[in-house]
């Protein structure tokens, strides 16, 4: 019986794996697992019901991805009947203007994804390598790709355009937006939980090691903080966020900084880590007594509050703010700091609710409501995979 859909959510240093059972009507998450490529040796962890596994992989960090996946599927086979796999869905960061939704993996789509690697050099090649490795191991299993950029295709050309020569925009230098699978998850969940408010003007703050915000109008993306690359917008764990382009020109021309060194600095040595000199983990900075740790948090929350205001201008108003992802879901102090900077706008937290990490974290009577809601990118991938399969079978 082919009733399992596996999902692979490839990040910068981890791969999250989801297992979903399809009963003919709905999807049910049966297990979740992951590979930590930042660990040495590599580690594989899995949760299935009450089962908890945390295993060391024999494959080294420099091992071929096919070897790593062969070992991972061997571990999975002890707990999941792999013959039940109906399809495998992948998160792919960049779909450019080519993909407006999920797509079946075939030679044509692989070539198109590969051609977009220049737009997402740190993420796209990893997703492609994973897709190709699974094709080699299980050529008979259909694979699909779900794109982070696709959710933002509803943004207007005015929002997507940079103030650069028009021919550059036509060549693809424009705002794309990311974390779309997360925003799609939140939009869908929020509609079920708050059917009236979800039709209004909402800003979602996806705050994790990578972080961005999205303006939703009736559940559709109309603006977002990330733009051409995953560097733009608010500061992140190790990424800079918005920066004056003149700084980059200065470093390249006056300081003789190489492109590789600049890339490393902007992606891996900036953000909370760069500002504090201590850590890119906001949890470590919140408990630190160092003044630079406090300053890094203050800059982080100030930029987020400012971006919420910018997105409210695009929306033409604001009805609600939703916090999600690792920081947004689990760090009340960060949420409180952001909302305090938005009090003038009408955001007022219920401190008890905020500390308890419940769904509504603002007073019921607030003009602008605030919520905490867990995202589920893997479920979105699984649902899109199923939709593609159903379309192909018609």
From TrEMBL:
The family assignment reads: Belongs to the acetokinase family.
Q: State the protein's name.
A: Acetate kinase
Q: Where does Mg(2+) bind?
A: 9, 377
Subunit comment: Homodimer.
User: InterPro entries recorded for this chain?
Assistant: Ac/propionate_kinase (IPR004372), Aliphatic_acid_kin_short-chain (IPR000890), Aliphatic_acid_kinase_CS (IPR023865), ATPase_NBD (IPR043129)
UniProt xrefs under NCBIfam families: ackA, PRK07058.1
Query: Where's it mainly located?
Result: cytoplasm
Where does this protein reside within or beyond the cell? Cytoplasm
Residues the entry annotates as binding substrate:
91
Record's keyword terms, sorted:
ATP-binding, Cytoplasm, Kinase, Magnesium, Metal-binding, Nucleotide-binding, Transferase
Q: Per UniProt, where does ATP bind?
A: 16, 206-210, 281-283, 326-330
Q: Which cofactor(s) are needed, names only?
A: Mg(2+); Mn(2+)
| Reactions performed catalytically | acetate + ATP = acetyl phosphate + ADP
Question: Per its UniProt record, what Pfam families does this chain match?
Answer: Acetate_kinase
User: Which residues does UniProt mark as catalytic?
Assistant: 148 (proton donor/acceptor)
Cofactor: binding comment: Mg(2+). Can also accept Mn(2+).
Enzyme Commission code(s) on record: 2.7.2.1
Question: What pathway or pathways are given for this protein in its record?
Answer: Metabolic intermediate biosynthesis; acetyl-CoA biosynthesis; acetyl-CoA from acetate: step 1/2
Question: What is known about what this protein does?
Answer: Catalyzes the formation of acetyl phosphate from acetate and ATP. Can also catalyze the reverse reaction.
Top class in the EC scheme = transferase
Q: Which SUPFAM superfamilies match?
A: Actin-like ATPase domain
Q: Does the keyword Cytoplasm apply?
A: yes
Single annotated GO MF: kinase activity
- Tell me the classification of the organism that encodes this protein: Bacteria, Pseudomonadati, Pseudomonadota, Alphaproteobacteria, Hyphomicrobiales
Q: Give the site residues for Transition state stabilizer.
A: 179, 239
